[in-house]
Amino acid sequence: MPNASTRPKRGRRNRRAPREDPARNELVSRSLESAQQCLFNQDYGTAFVHYLLVLNLAPVLKDFASESFRFTLFKWADELDSLGRIQDLFDCYEQALELFPTDEVIINSMGEHLFRMGFRDEAAGHFHKALKLKPDYPEAKENFYRVANWLVERWHFLMLNDRKRNHKYQQAIQKAVEGGCNTVLDIGTGTGILGMCAKKTGAAEVYACELSKTMYELACEVVTANGMNGRIKILHMKSLEMEVPKDIPKRVSLVVTETVDAGLFGEGIIESLIHAWNHLLLPPQSTQDPSTPPSQTGRVIPAGATVFGMAVQCLEIRRHHRLCVSEVGGLAMAAAGELHSPVSCSSEDDSTEPYTTERLSRLPGGYTPLTEPFNALDIDFNNVQELEGLCSREVSRVRLPVTGEGLLDALAVWFQLHLDQESSLSTGPMEDTCWEQAIYPVQTPHNFPLRPGDELIVEISCRDAYLRLCSVAVARDGREFRLDDCLDPDQPRNNPGQSGNPKPSLNAEAELCSALACLGTEQSSGPRDYTMLECAEMALLNNQPYHDSFRRALAKLITNLKDARSVQGPSQGEGLEVMPLTDPPSGPMDPGPDPFYVLDVSEGFSVLSLMAASQGQVKAYSSVEKTQHQAVLRRLAKANGVPEEALEFWLNQVEDEQAVLQRPSREKLWSAIILDCVETCGLVRQKLMEKATLARCLLEDGGQIFPERIVLYGMLVESDSLLLESAVQGQEPTLGFNIAPFINQFTVPVHVFLDLSTLQCRHLSGSVELFILDLMNTNANYTNRDVKVQASASGRVTAVPFWYQIHLNEEISVSTFNQDSHWKQAAVVLHQPLEVREGDWVRLAVTLQKSSISISACIEDEAGETGTVDSVRESDQ
Ligand code: 44T
């Protein structure tokens, strides 16, 4: 295979013996022929080698062969990928890029492979490069926007826009530096802001470390742009890897850090500070000898934190973490067994997180406090013994008086960060803060209503450096009822006398009885068996209107198809009660009517295939992949009287070569194909239209794709909060530093995972149809559309949130914007706000390229025409 080292020689030979070399020409043309033949035979590996040879020997053919070469490369790369030959895969891309160094398609595709393999930074670099080469290249744009969110998380913008927070940190640092702490280390510097504060206030030496490559590079750019290059030493490493004198010459007198997440410890601050105290900081000020000057002692900003918790009832949290319905789309759910979200503080399972995060004040439907906020923990970051002892501390139990009535859905947690003795920041739900709160959901499947007079017993511990809060029991009428069966029953209790009594009191009310019927008191059988569903999968399963719509639409289709068959005359075995659910070519035993074939290609866990199978005379194919999820569907099938053979998991058969393509075989085609068209985040699924085109070719006459059509709706809004998380706002420098232009390179125009019902915004128009995607007739689709919308109020249009009406058939549709939805909404944030007056007509130019939407907005003049340059106020994204 030619490689870089052979090229100079080729170059020299080319000069001496150019084109007419007949032997070479012969080789080129034979290789080209072989390449084409191999391509035709789908032998991509050999085709690729031939193409490499051809194009290295005859670069003039590059234009002619580039398309086939790329095609071959991508096919071969996919094969190498599935074979796990990762090094070979990247070698192929390197070779391809030697031939086509500025080919944005190859660069972008290599980025996609890198991304899939978890090399996000490198992937982002490729997408960025592809985009620079071709700024309107939709795939690269979409990819870059997707990774930008990962690389520079949105909270960076929120934090930099939070002036109160910036000033408090600045003041605390200034006071410490002026008080004598003159050597500083900024752990997790992000954009470099706290390190720059320390330098500006006169610290002699400032060091900063940052583990993210993108953020490290950004910090270097920012520090240079602010004239501090060489005056702050930035290291691309995790603080835990830093050593004195290898990375910094000597121990520092001040560590500043904001490596805290909504749950305080999730960014590893405990570990980082223990390490810093042991290896990077000067010894702390001793209480015996408080006269040691600050320059010779160590301290940390923030100095400590107080963690608060509160029990809440919240339907929105509940429906994302546990099953709330007993029936879904006509299927009884009891047989599903226990279903959990992957958020659990009691589980030992590595795939679970102890908490998730939400901004409580913006949760749709709100929340009801069931207890007063309680103090869960106090921690002193300047006391290394306390930090070290945290994880070995006994589990502490607190008894909280219940003050509100309702179901216990979660413990919400927030904290006060004490920057120093005088100043602190709070992340509480009642504050005007950009912070989210940590949510520890309760996953017990029982509905146990708490009421004033009860006591909630919560255990607080610190394991794997995470703070864990677990509601374990409720005390009522002198008895304790366990909430968490996952506790080890063999472990001694603090008060075995009470909780050891297995019998609940006899005078309990009906409500309590039913709740207790399923509540183990002490006879818990140890860790229960449960199946894990992602939060969005859980919310989907709880979405009854969605499943009911599908049930009706499927029933209607099957009825129509049955009618059509009866008009066409009886087919083999028609009318028999028993349906044959063996594969169609199953031979002479096949007595019943042909089943209808339904394929569900939804991503993740979906019961739609089972719902289809439960219609009778249907053979359904599910795309559910996880063995545990398949087991749930099998259990549900059995319990709901669906014959085992009526439901198949086609992904199980992929290895069985052609199995997928053969089904349904004979002349049969699919009666229905269910496509999962909108992602939970609020975007159209990638490659949806390609899938629809393919699906349409596989349908029988009268068959249907679900959904058949999607209509995109949007509205004009003025939302400052969307702006705050999309870019550093305003012309003013951040704390006097020039940061915005650098971080704002990572601004993305489309925001996802929004809750439009609670988004802080003013509506400046009603909702308007933006776009139609016709899945049954993909040729009818367009990529651009101009939409006129009239402003219903004056204001600044900063964004166009959008959502979908998903039409299953002519009559039945579901919206991605309603309170039961498992979907969130998305919004295009305009590059520049557009001033509108009530009654103005705004023209939105909507583009949907691939699955990425872009919208630009401008005012139309009174005649309804787009105005002249002067009269048009224009904004695009
Ligand atoms: N998010 C807050 C968490 N790092 C902030 O790479 C608040 C979330 C949030 N570098 C909504 C609102 C808000 N050594 O760039 C990151 C990270 C880096 C380290 C070197 C270490 N030991 C670490 C640990 C982390 O520090 C930076 C900041 S972490 C802050 C997390 C507005 N949602």
Automatic annotation (TrEMBL):
Residues 492-504 have a biased composition (Polar residues). Its EC number is 2.1.1.320. Its main location: cytoplasm. InterPro entries: Arg_MeTrfase (IPR025799), PRMT_dom (IPR055135), SAM-dependent_MTases_sf (IPR029063), TPR-like_helical_dom_sf (IPR011990), TPR_rpt (IPR019734). Residues 7-16 have a biased composition (Basic residues). Residues 760-854 form the Protein arginine N-methyltransferase domain. PROSITE patterns: SAM_MT_PRMT, TPR. Residues 1-28, 484-506 are annotated as: Disordered. It comes from the Eukaryota. It is found in: Cytoplasm. TPR repeats lie at residues 104-137. GO terms for molecular function: histone methyltransferase activity; protein-arginine omega-N symmetric methyltransferase activity. One of its GO terms (biological process) is methylation. Keywords: Cytoplasm, Methyltransferase, Repeat, S-adenosyl-L-methionine, TPR repeat, Transferase. CDD domains: AdoMet_MTases. It catalyses: L-arginyl-[protein] + 2 S-adenosyl-L-methionine = N(omega),N(omega)'-dimethyl-L-arginyl-[protein] + 2 S-adenosyl-L-homocysteine + 2 H(+). This is Protein arginine N-methyltransferase 9. GO terms for cellular component: cytoplasm; nucleus. Coiled coil: none annotated.
